[in-house]
Amino acid sequence: MPYPLRINGLEKSYGGQHVLGPIDLDLEAGTITAIIGRSGSGKTTLLRCLGGLEQPTAGRITIGDGQVSPADIGYVFQEPRLMPWLTVAKNTGFGLAGFTKPARDLAIAEALDLVGLPDAGALLPKQLSGGMAQRVALARALAPHPKLILLDEPFSALDPFTREQMQDHLLHLHEHYGATMVLITHDMDEALALALRIIVLDGPPGRIIGDFSPDLPRPADRVSAAFFVWKRRLTALFTRQSAPPPEAAFSDQQPAQENFP
């Protein structure tokens, strides 16, 4: 079952320099949330804290009623990070050491089938296209059925056509696995196409300046008037010269959209 993700008073500093927070955020279980923002706004730092790759300077992150553990998390990076000496099947099953062999084989076959690579298990990474390699990275993250999937600009290195295919494919995977997903992206179209909720960061230090739940269908019609209006609304936040204090953050309940049709 999916679990809610709660972030309370999260802050991160490096060498005395405050780069993120405070961040307070509750994410609904089983949803996709996109986090967007300019370079230096703390997006990846936030994701690394959620994934346990960085220790917060202050604050608390919980899934359900407990602390986040590595077993709770699947992580998809900008590049596939496949081990070149392992086959696709073995890369996919890398996080399944605690499974019995029948359960591991079943999880690998299920994940590869769902990413559209049911017959690729014996291939090596060097035999894959960029899109195929990133599908394997998705399969590896999803195979253990984690509670939380963290995606750090996973499609940014792909060509536009493949990127859009992968975005639509991610929706299919989300529907099947039902995990809570947090997506870091620079691409507003990607955020609008995938996420039920969009969090906008600006900084440094990175703070939330916008919190929106676009009323768009899934999959979203990327050429619709509603999609364009939402994109303009998000773009407007980035014309601001500096991040407002947290109490000035925009949300669906505030009239940030008054200048839009």
In summary, what is this structure?
The chain is of the alpha/beta class and 261 residues long. It is 30% helix and 24% strand. It has a domain at 5-81 and 146-167 and 176-251: P-loop containing nucleotide triphosphate hydrolases (Rossmann fold), CATH 3.40.50.
Q: What can you see in these coordinates?
A:
Helix 3 crosses helix 4. The protein is an alpha/beta fold and 261 residues long. It has a domain of 175 residues: Rossmann fold.
Q: Which strand-content bin applies to the residues?
A: 15-25%
Question: Strands of the largest sheet, in order across it?
Answer: 6-7-8-3-9-10-11
Give the % helix. 25-40%
How many distinct beta strands? 11
Distance between the termini: 40 Å
What characteristic shape results from the CA principal axes?
globular
In CATH, the topology of the domain at 5-81 and 146-167 and 176-251 is named Rossmann fold
- Which class of the domain at 5-81 and 146-167 and 176-251 in CATH terms? Alpha Beta
Q: Number of helix segments?
A: 7
CATH architecture of the domain at 5-81 and 146-167 and 176-251: 3-Layer(aba) Sandwich
Low-pLDDT parts are 241-248, 253-261
List SSEs in N-to-C order: EEEHEEEHHHEHEHEEHE
Could you give me the name of the CATH homologous superfamily of the domain at 5-81 and 146-167 and 176-251?
A: P-loop containing nucleotide triphosphate hydrolases
Structural class: alpha/beta
* Overall pLDDT confidence: 85
Main sheet overview: 7 strands, mixed
Give me the Rg, rounded: 19 Å
